Amino acid sequence: MMTKLRIISRLWSHITDLRLYIRGQSSKTLEQIEDELDITEYYCRPYADVDDVDDV
Fold first, then answer.
1. What angle do CA 40, 43, 48 make, to 5 degrees?
2. What is the pTM of this model?
3. What is the Cα gyration radius of the chain?
4. Where are the alpha helices (H) located in the chain, listed in sequence order?
5. pLDDT digits (tens, 9 = 90+) for 19-47
6. Could you give the maximum distance between any two Cα atoms of the chain, in Å?
7. In terms of domain of life, where is this protein from (predicted)?
8. 10 Å Cβ neighbour count for 46?
9. CA distance 10 to 29
């Protein structure tokens, strides 16, 4: 299982990839970016129905 921090890092990476793609400066195709987003979505699934409140 991927940590929440690693998932957040991946999401910021996707944002950067998409911004570069929009500017025409990306070395990745839109299909590659979408494939990577799908992988990140897979890693998010275990957290989808989990309450995010930490016990004190």
1. 110
2. 0.81
3. 14
4. 4-23, 30-44
5. 999 999 999 999 999 999 999 999 999 98
6. 47
7. Bacteria
8. 12
9. 17
